[in-house]
Amino acid sequence: MNNYTWLVYNTLFAGEHMLKELSVNSGNFLLSLSDAIDLSGSTYGSHQQKLAYIVWQMGNAAKLSKEAIEKIFIAALFHNIGILAIEDKIRERRVDKENLDIHCILGELLFEFTPLLKPSAKVIRYHHRPWNEWDSSIESPYVIESQILCLANMVELSIKHDQFILNQVDRITKDISSSSGSIINPNLADLFMTLSKREDFWLDLVSPRLYSLLINFKSFQNYIIGYDTIYSMTLLVRSIIDFRSIFTATHSAGVAECAGILSELFGFSEYETKLIKIAANLHDLGKLAIPDTILNKPDVLTEHEFNIVKQHPYFTYSILNTIQGFDQISKWAAFHHEKQNGSGYPFQIPGGMISTGSRIMAVADIFSALSEDRPYRKSMNKKAVNQILTDHVNNHNLDSRIVFMLLENQDEILFRMREKQNISKTYYNEQVAMIDEQTPE
Ligand SMILES: [Fe+2]
Ligand SMILES: [Fe+2]
Ligand SMILES: [Fe+2]
Fold it and tell me: How far is the CA of 104 from the centre of ligand 1 (A)?
């Protein structure tokens, strides 16, 4: 191994034995997860971050309190989750106006269940409500916040990404002023006209460095969040990743339970076991960047399609690695397709360098996948699963100690996985039912 490779591996693996109480900075955490959701093809590059930047500028221009600005800022960072959640169901029933309502209602529901996002739930609910449909003053609760997000969305959607931004300012401001009094409150539209005169506003808005700009601007209150808050947010993100398809609707829930049990059996501390569950919730985060036509293809993938799929652990790593305090979690999460013989993807880490947590994740991921239906096959029975896992051991793909530990406890592990997966299934079905209710045939 040359010096450079050694340096890379040291960087990747440093810290495995230095676990301490998990705490992260709220802004850093939320910006990174928002970035992950922006990987999805449903939005055009950093759409949510751009909205967050506009609402922050507008909130300051309107002299709103720090708390109010943060409420809109967080709403902006995740305003698309209602579209991404059970994306295929929404697409099946595509009807424009209803669609808008659905993603607002679903967004509100998802925000309500997540402590970090809860204060912003109503902003999401009303972020497409035009000004002339409000019969309250702009100062009433949620009105100004929802209106600022509504305006920001209009501005961002007017940007043509193949044209230089400063050449578009006239057209965009004309669009907004023509909506003044109908879609947008006139005072807010005026405030925007003043803001739009500043070139730096537009240049920051389209800067590829927007993530670091938002951190540098201190555009949110920095506070430290602990395990429970982080965990609840990862449950939400997990549902966004998994609920894109009925076939994967309970996948990460199964991986989290299986990885948690294997960690306990292996002798991990209670705290490490909790961390591995966070890593498992987020292990397929990078799949947000993979088109669901490929993820749900009812057939074997072509080489080209498989190359696209191979990116997903890379994206998982590159997103989670930007969260300070997530060193261990990012590696445990992202190395789940690495193999003991070094032929895994995308980092091709030699077996001896793969940490125990990542090996556990690899076994839990395969076991969970084999136990689930896929578009091209049914879930596998115990005998077939055992055979495949044993083959993986013989081919030096998976760690034999972990696989045999799993096989010895297979019935118990599967039972506990099913319990957790049933909870996810119920949650998934509730969302589908809500969409059915909102869209008459
Ligand atoms: Fe929206
Ligand atoms: Fe994966
Ligand atoms: Fe997976």
Answer: 7
14: pLDDT strictly greater than 50 = no
Beta-bridge mates of residue 374: 377
| pLDDT tens profile 390-409 | 999 999 999 999 999 999 99
Q: What is the mean pLDDT of the chain?
A: 89
pTM score of the predicted model: 0.89
Amino acid letter for position 149: L
Structure-token pair, residue 399: 């760690």
The crossing angle, in degrees rounded to 10, of helices 251-266 and 400-408 is 100
Look up tokens 């309500």; give the residue: 112
Count of positions (residues) in the chain:
441
Residue 194 has pLDDT above 90, yes or no: yes
The rounded distance, in Å, linking the Cα atoms of 409 and 358 is 20
Cα of 252 vs centre of ligand 3, distance in Å, is 7
For ligand 3, the distance from its centroid to the CA atom of residue 364, given in whole angstroms, is 9
| CA 364 – ligand 2 centroid, Å | 11
**Hey, what domains does the chain have and what are their CATH numbers?**
25-216 (1.10.3210.10), 226-438 (1.10.3210.10)
Instruction: Give me ligand 1 centre to Cα 403, in Å.
Output: 45
Cβ–Cβ under 8 Å, residues 398 and 389: yes
Q: Output the CA 312–ligand 3 centroid distance in Å.
A: 10
pLDDT tens per residue, range 205-216: 999 999 999 988
Omega of the bond prior to 346 within 30 degrees of 0, cis? yes
* Centre of ligand 2 from the C-alpha of residue 345, in Å: 10
